[in-house]
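Before relying on records like the one below, remember that each one covers exactly one chain. Contacts with other chains, cofactors or solvent are not represented anywhere in the record.
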Amino acid sequence: MPGPAIDGQTYGNQAPPARVPVASYHAAPVVTPLPPAAVYSPGATPMPGAATPLPPSARAAQAAGKAISHAMLAGVEGTRQIGNLGQKFLGMADDVDAALYGKRALVVNGVAFFTVAVTAIEEWIHPRAPFGMTITTGLFSFLLFVLFVARLGALRDDDGNWSLGLVADRLRSAGTALREGLSAFGNASGPQRAAALGKCLVGLSLVGLALRNIVVLLVIIADELFDASIGTAQSLDETMMFAGMVTLALGAVCWLLGWWSIHSSPEAQRLQPNAAERDHLVAAARGLPILIDCTDKARALELAGRSGHPVLEALIKVLVTWQPRGAEKEADYQASLHRKLRRDLPGANPERERPIGDRASGIRGRADLVVSDSVLIEMKKGLTTTTAQRAVGQIQMYLRAWNRGPVMLLVCDTDPTTQPFLVKEMEELRRSRQAPVVMVFAGRR
């Protein structure tokens, strides 16, 4: 016999399923209770289709794994941030090193002298509260560290990758520079050797005395904070102080004697023209050909001999024999010629990166080289047609700002096709303005 029918369905002899309550908008909501969740019990058989709960040990291992994963991700992110910070610091060190190009030794010695002076004053006024010494020593140490990092950064290629090949190249370049320096020292005159040795000793003594402050600070910290006495440090401090002062005095004496001998020599008197002799120098420069090519040594030496002024004669002879070995950039050429001028013409007092002009005239710049306080040299390397036009514009600016003597455009390793343009423009300057300009091709390696 068929069972009862519910909603049009018959269920035979089976009991019909319970009717599911239907929610009504007019009655209270009906909440159907859910069956209780399964609770893990050791040894219990899981229900079919249900996820197997993890035991406490497995949950602990899972949590530990997640913690280790998060720690590794945090470490990777921290390493990346540290790497970015290191790259920024390396870039900053490169910028500082580039800004101090050609003046590194002067800046380091100047900061060292300031540090030593502050230390001496504080040891006399406040020996137990060296605040100034601490600050200046920290700044000096940081400067040395920045320059050291910049030297390390120079061992990277153009793509920023570290290169062992560059290490070998830098070592070879340093060895070459050392050999050339020793050779130049051996070929120098007595006064030149004395002046060079004196400057070297003064620089080393100032740096040593400035770094001695680190030992002094260690002794003070140990005495004030820990009531301890470091006998070795105190002995080292006394030794460094004595050696530094003796070296400083010896270097100063050698430097002053060498400088006085150089600048009082007859050669120095010839190479330092006064106001009247500068007029003669300007006239002599106008009498030279507009172009002097030092690759034709015989012709260049002939022009030097009949230049009519000792400054021009000596300068052209130096340019004929100048060979900037190992120079790549324009700054390297400038440094090479500056070294040769100081070695061959010490009485001419060659200067590099000399400021010229003033704010009032609106013309300010820096001359690459100035010889005998009268001849301004603007050096250009690898000129093209475009850069040659810019070079002529610079010469015009220097002619307005410089009134102490001739202006020389020194051209190195330049495309020969630019020569006619340069000659034409320089001839026009001399003809239209009576400008004492000369162009010299030199520096062939």
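Residues 56-99 form the longest helix (44 residues).
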